[in-house]
Amino acid sequence: MKYPWRNLLPRYLILVVFMLVVLVPIWGMFTSAFKTSTEVMEGPFSLPSVWSLENFEQAWRVGRFNIFFKNSVLVATAVVISSVFLSTLSGYAFGSLPLPGKNWLYPLILIGYMVPFEAVIIPLYNLLDKIGITDTLWALILPQVGLSVSFGTMWMSSFFENTPRELTDAATIDGCSRWQTLWYILWPIAKPAVTTLVVLIFMWTWNEFLLALVMVQNETLRTLPVGLAFFQGKYTANIPLMAAGAIIVALPTILIYILFQRFFIRGMLGGAVKG
Asked: Domain segments of the chain: what residues?
């Protein structure tokens, strides 16, 4: 059924308004990153006279964003790989297997997702300090793996609960073990759900601020969000430099979303339920 353009026009106008609300500040930050301090005073939305990467080079070198970027990549990679692998195993166990004690064990795992992180940051710091891993990257990786696996278990168990039982039954009849059924039968059809989980965990880990601020005091171990906060306090008056630093922090998450957009949307709309 086709709708007359007059009926569709208000919807598109509303969408355009929301799009402008989102894109206008981004455009102002983007153009500011290429300007000089003098050109910024002319207005945030004017174009720079010369599209120079000097601000990015200075932020990367003077602001030590090269070190912060490496730390963020290490932490995000470790958290994403570990969390997705463990979430797949736990989700498969809760969603497809007759696991003893499932009714009380599943809510217990979800506590990590339901309890606000701010409520446990102090006890968590005391625990990691006694273990002796504060001021290391492990203090950033292990807590985020725990938090991510809690959500990932819920996400993947929802997918495995709704996979056709005929697939697992046929695999069992053919002699597949549960491990083989997971990786050879269910894993290939779980790509939308897994990809969505990867994107979500990556964005949460990459943008994590409070944990990195509390657990790490060594400047060489800071991640990009914390590094940007300290950078902003040091170069408050240099708007182009701060804009360049903000773009460096935001660019990886934007690229990840663009690359996996198709799988991400499929996973959000139906991948976690129907595969």
From this structure: 65-224+241-274
A 10 A CB-CB count for 51 gives 10
Q: What is the mean pLDDT of residues 184-211?
A: 90
Q: Quick one: what percent of the chain has pLDDT higher than 90?
A: 35
Which listed CATH number (1.10.3720.10, 3.90.1300.10, 1.10.760.10, 1.10.443.10) goes with 65-224+241-274? 1.10.3720.10
Q: 140 and 215 in contact (C-beta within 8 Å)?
A: yes
- Is the distance from CB of 218 to CB of 135 less than 8 angstroms? yes
Task: Tell me the whole-structure pTM to 2 decimals.
Answer: 0.85
In Å, what is the CA distance from 60 to each residue of 77, 79, 160, 241, 251?
21, 24, 44, 10, 14
Specify burial of residue 48 (Cβ count, 10 A radius: 0-12, 13-18, 19+): middle
